[in-house]
Inverse folding.
């Protein structure tokens, strides 16, 4: 059992605050770890990176190695990296970088350091914040309530398939596709087989978490020419297990549900002002007044919500 | 009878349910406001209790009901009336997944549609749905009746044990081992007797009664593939 949530604002707004509320209402669904994917105002060039280093005692050396890989790819920090460190051994970072010459090639090289330091999101607007602990704890530590943007995702994890580690939390970034993130409620049973196929194509997975597959799987299908709705639909027949997942990109959020209709999704849509969550009581935090609630309860469902009522079907 | 209003908001669920029990014991009619779709509202309410919920409720509302009359203004979340043995629950709108799960007696009346697996593993009582019942409704129901006036979703009556599912309207597809039979006039009269107090009798309905093919009663492992529905 996990809890997932999504929020699309009308324009740039306090999406961080709303996602924290959505996840706070669902913290009982999984208190192992909490995460947020927030789409801020997009920049024309440069990327924001969010990630983690696993041993703060070696922070300086590890960050220097990370910077050297960046420079090898014609990039550099645009500003001093922001480091968040506490009693835990791991530390979290936020960096703004110049465009590398080839994003995929740079990510592949940066990933040679993942035993020490790992990128957890890369995007013109996407920032993924994840950590161990409940919604309030993670929100307080990372200042999530103060983050503004157009839309985003949230996740509360109750680990069923793999270890509780700070980097095994959701949301997952679709490595190396910039600005794509997913959250998932359920279990993928054939993830190992799928991962093996994708790894043979050159993709990298950094955790043993089954959900990490979904983001890359959908993005790979889209890279091969499918539209997002086509890829979501295909996933229902191709990926085995129990799932309701949401996938976000700068244009909006899509969802897909398995054939067994095991995991719920509740949506309030007020003319493009949207909140989605596992439980109705969560979306009520954002829309407390009486209004229509859409229950996506059936099997094999998928759908898309565009930011600003934008179509993301194309 | 005097009315007792309970404000839910962010209060602890145990405190809210204890207040309901005390008000019911004092013979008050209870009105619950500001529900915010919270879970576990009104669990184990006693016989004779009359209670109404403003707006929508979360999971398990009216669960383990032993005789209360419960009115939910709008939607109910998962497993409304789970395990109830007696009483009456009315849902004004949509009832989420597993409405009436494992119920043993009493009636649940849903004015809208239901989510998947309505009446899953029910052991008795009746569920009347004015709209459409969701995917795989009646899954492994042992007894009792699910009566759907607005059709049924896919895999209807899958692995039904001994309950009955009555459907007026379209059935998207039948589940494994579900059989549609023509009901007799006496059987229709029994169903109408359930619908009559709700003001829902309509003699023009074309009923289909779904019953178990009973293959699950004598399960043979060599037939296992038939039960792998996908």
């Amino acid at each position: 059992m996990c809890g997932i949530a999504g929020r699309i604002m009308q324009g740039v707004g306090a999406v961080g605050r709303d996602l924290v509320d959505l996840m706070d209402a669902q913290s009982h669904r999984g208190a192992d770890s909490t995460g947020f994917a927030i789409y801020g105002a997009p920049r024309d060039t440069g990327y924001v990176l969010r990630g983690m280093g696993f041993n703060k005692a070696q922070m300086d050396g590890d960050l220097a190695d990370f910077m050297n890989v960046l420079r090898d790819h014609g990039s550099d920090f645009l500003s001093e990296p922001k480091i968040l460190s506490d009693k835990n051994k791991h530390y979290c970072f936020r960096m703004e970088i110049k465009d590398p010459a080839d994003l995929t090639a740079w990510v592949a090289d940066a990933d040679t350091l993942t035993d020490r330091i790992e990128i957890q999101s890369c995007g013109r607007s996407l920032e993924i914040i994840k950590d161990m602990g409940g919604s309030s704890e993670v929100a307080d530590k990372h200042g999530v309530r103060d983050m503004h943007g157009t839309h985003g995702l949230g996740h509360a994890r109750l680990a069923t398939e793999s270890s509780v580690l700070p980097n095994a939390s959701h949301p997952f970034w679709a490595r190396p596709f910039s600005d794509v993130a997913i959250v998932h409620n359920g279990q993928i049973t054939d993830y190992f087989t799928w991962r093996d196929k994708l790894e043979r194509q050159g993709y990298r997975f950094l955790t043993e978490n089954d959900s990490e597959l979904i983001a890359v799987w959908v993005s790979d299908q889209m890279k091969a020419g499918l539209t997002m709705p086509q890829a979501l639909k295909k996933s229902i027949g191709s990926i085995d297990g129990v799932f309701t997942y949401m996938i976000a990109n700068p244009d909006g959020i899509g969802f897909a549900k398995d054939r067994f209709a095991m995991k719920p999704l509740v949506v309030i849509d007020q003319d493009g002002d949207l909140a989605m969550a596992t439980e109705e009581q969560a979306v009520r935090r954002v829309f407390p007044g009486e209004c229509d609630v859409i229950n996506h309860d059936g099997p094999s469902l998928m759908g898309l919500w565009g930011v600003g009522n934008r179509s993301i079907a194309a | 009878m005097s009315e007792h209003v309970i404000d839910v908001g962010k209060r602890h669920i145990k405190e809210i349910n204890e207040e309901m029990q005390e008000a019911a014991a004092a013979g008050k009619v209870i009105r619950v406001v500001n529900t915010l779709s919270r879970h576990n509202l009104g669990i184990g309410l006693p016989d004779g209790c009359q209670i109404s919920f403003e707006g929508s409720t979360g999971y398990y509302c009216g669960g383990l009901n032993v005789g209360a009359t419960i009115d939910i203004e709008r939607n109910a979340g998962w497993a409304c009336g789970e395990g109830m043995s007696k009483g009456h629950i009315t849902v004004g709108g949509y009832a989420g997944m597993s409405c009436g799960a494992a119920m043993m007696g009493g009636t649940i009346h849903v004015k809208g549609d239901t989510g998947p697996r309505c009446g899953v593993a029910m052991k008795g009582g009746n569920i009347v749905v004015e709209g459409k019942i969701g995917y795989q409704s009646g899954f492994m129901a042992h007894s009792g009746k699910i009566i759907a006036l607005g059709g049924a979703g896919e895999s209807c009556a899958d692995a039904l044990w001994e309950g009955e599912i009555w459907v007026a309207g379209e059935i998207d597809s039948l589940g494994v081992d579900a059989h549609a039979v023509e009901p007799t006039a006496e059987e229709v009269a029994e169903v109408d007797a359930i619908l009559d107090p709700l003001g829902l009798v309509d003699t023009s309905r074309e009923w289909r009664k779904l019953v178990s093919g009973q293959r699950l009663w004598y399960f043979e492992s060599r037939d296992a593939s038939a039960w792998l529905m996908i």
Chain A has a mean pLDDT of 94.
